[in-house]
Amino acid sequence: MIYVSRKEHFNAAHKLYNPIWSEEKNIEMFGPCANANWHGHNFELIVTVKGTPNPETGFVIDLKKLSLLIRKEIIEKVDHKNLNLDVDFMFGKMASTENIAMEFWKILAPAIKTIAPDAQLHCIKLYETPRNFVEYLGE
Amino acid sequence: MIYVSRKEHFNAAHKLYNPIWSEEKNIEMFGPCANANWHGHNFELIVTVKGTPNPETGFVIDLKKLSLLIRKEIIEKVDHKNLNLDVDFMFGKMASTENIAMEFWKILAPAIKTIAPDAQLHCIKLYETPRNFVEYLGE
Amino acid sequence: MIYVSRKEHFNAAHKLYNPIWSEEKNIEMFGPCANANWHGHNFELIVTVKGTPNPETGFVIDLKKLSLLIRKEIIEKVDHKNLNLDVDFMFGKMASTENIAMEFWKILAPAIKTIAPDAQLHCIKLYETPRNFVEYLGE
Amino acid sequence: MIYVSRKEHFNAAHKLYNPIWSEEKNIEMFGPCANANWHGHNFELIVTVKGTPNPETGFVIDLKKLSLLIRKEIIEKVDHKNLNLDVDFMFGKMASTENIAMEFWKILAPAIKTIAPDAQLHCIKLYETPRNFVEYLGE
Amino acid sequence: MIYVSRKEHFNAAHKLYNPIWSEEKNIEMFGPCANANWHGHNFELIVTVKGTPNPETGFVIDLKKLSLLIRKEIIEKVDHKNLNLDVDFMFGKMASTENIAMEFWKILAPAIKTIAPDAQLHCIKLYETPRNFVEYLGE
Amino acid sequence: MIYVSRKEHFNAAHKLYNPIWSEEKNIEMFGPCANANWHGHNFELIVTVKGTPNPETGFVIDLKKLSLLIRKEIIEKVDHKNLNLDVDFMFGKMASTENIAMEFWKILAPAIKTIAPDAQLHCIKLYETPRNFVEYLGE
């Protein structure tokens, strides 16, 4: 078993705001992250796939294909977008890094099977800033 | 003459949008940067001051004081904010990295004099992403 | 289960020196790391916490609170300090990166419970330099 | 159990080319990576060893010895070399990052036992570029 | 005057070898960089353009256009290539980082005029490795 | 004219402390940097040399020779040392990053002439931390 990773990035706006709470409670819980007019980040996304190398190519997965898949399924939908307003799979969810990573998993786990049937998604690692990041392994 | 630099960062939303143009022209000129619902970045800011070291301290400028000054004069005004809507010194200006850097200069050049009278601001370097950045030397 | 990480840093002096050994044996075992007058590092510390996101906040743990906790419990005690002479929880122990990481675990594992009762410390990752680092998972 | 890591680097040329395939099929499968005249990378190698710290040294493994071992067993054989033509342990294998990492494991797992009998190799992490990397845990 | 920079990268093979010298003299002068079978690098290229921001866009130069120009004029010609064998503008020249940077200048200085007539190329910065790099300002 | 740079690093202890002042004044002026038992850093040093490429080698300066020179003249004297106690060229001087950089210049400017008579030292850039650094151009 080998773990193969590809790093991509996107720039997006978001805010942390729970509509069932008052403005005051949102500020108390989320501080400046609840700023009504949004803020944003350069997100870094690392997608890790596991499997055994194909003897003819030496590849677990073709990283060029993986990069194109991530761009088509994820980056095009979130880059230069507002994660709360513009991204259908985030509607009705808190735009926390945790939740974003779990939604990316739901999209990428089956999509990776279409380009590498013998491999599987292992980890979604998402940096909101160089100092804050999450990892999700699917369970 | 020694050049001394301090790096700070902030996370903000913005868009590139010229209100005298049509929606179509804005999209044509700015592409996804004109997204109506904003996008955002982790900006990295490097402030460089020049001068001669004080013989008693070995410092051109106390970097702790410079850090506090940058946070008070700049970071508190732009971090977790919308650069188009929330930042008074950007009102009526295109929120390009070039313009942001020039506005930072106007604020920091005199402010640095108050904490280091014999030193002077040399450069504002502003990273919008790790791959896009600008430098302004005041003229 | 989601893994959430926060990165902090501190600058400290230390040396590797076993007092039961002769000066010669210390030099033989630790080389320049045994330098009598100390040396130092910019340590980078990554604290990883695991748990399930709270549905109301989307957070496993509030990273602002985690950052403040790490600063209060760890950074204030080690930053701009001598790890052999100034840090009570290192007294009588070799100031190796391994031992420092294990002591940080002992402090942070219960402390994290006080701010996030449903989450738990997963990993302490400590960089002594960009090329030398350790990870401790608590057992 | 503590995990201790050392990072080294090397610069090498390679190509991805399966000699049982036609030129056209190689280009189709590997794209520009099949360029007949080679291309190259600054590879970054992270070797992780696990074990318990020795009470007299505080070390799982002496990282200076580990660095020298990696340089002698790996770096001297691959740095400023062609991975397809100059490196005996890669003869007859696709020079994919996956395969290189697995060959490094075969060499380093027993070699580490000679300098740290109570520790063991845990992971080979190999960056081909800052955005493409693999990890191998030995099975 | 504002300085605006864009960072791109490419992966290439090369060697340092002067054909008027003997094999021995090449090894003496260039060490492992003269390896007959090539070696390679992940080059990082930073292109800096200077000018005054356009009042309507806030841009010195559209960085999207600059990125596309660098990719078309430089990256497509050198990425996944052998700098000695595959790149016409390097034929007959030592493939040192200095010479590569100067050739990039000759191509980019007039090309930038075609997309930003009022701006001009200021600097080519080329990293061969994270620790070795050159800068060329055109004279 | 081409500018060629080489990056090296060293780990050292120091403190900022002016012996003509009281303990209280030192704490007031230097804060935690005055800690009696020292603190330390992973310093990063970038040495930039300028000149014209030699037509036979394509080099302004042989970076392998420059690296060895920096290691012999600087790194061996400061790495794993105490900058206040162990380094003769710092005796009697405040161990500020500014002063360290200026002392490095005095040593390296003539030394570089011995390995590259037609080139000259252009800049000493010294990072004390990733966020605090100085540059000295010799005047």
Which helices and strands occur, and which strands form pairs?
Six copies of one chain form a homohexamer.
Chain A: E1 2-14, H1 23-30, E2 39-51, H2 63-78, E3 81-82, H3 97-115, E4 120-129, E5 132-136
Parallel strand pairs in A: 1-3
Antiparallel strand pairs in A: 1-2, 2-4, 4-5
Q: Count up the helices of chain A.
A: 3
Quaternary state of this entry equals homohexamer
The CATH homologous superfamily of chain A is named 6-pyruvoyl tetrahydropterin synthase/QueD
In helices, the fraction of residues of chain A equals: 25-40%
* Strand portion of chain A: 25-35%
Task: Report the CATH C-level class of chain A.
Answer: Alpha Beta
Order of helices and strands of chain A: EHEHEHEE
Which protein chains are joined by the largest interface, and how many residues does each one contribute?
A: A-B, 23 and 23 residues
The whole-number mean of residue pLDDT values of chain A reads 97
Number of domains of chain A: 1
Strand order of the largest sheet of chain A: 3-1-2-4-5
Rg of chain A over CA atoms, rounded to whole Å, is: 17 Å
Shape of chain A: elongated
CATH level-3 fold name of chain A: Tetrahydropterin Synthase, Chain A
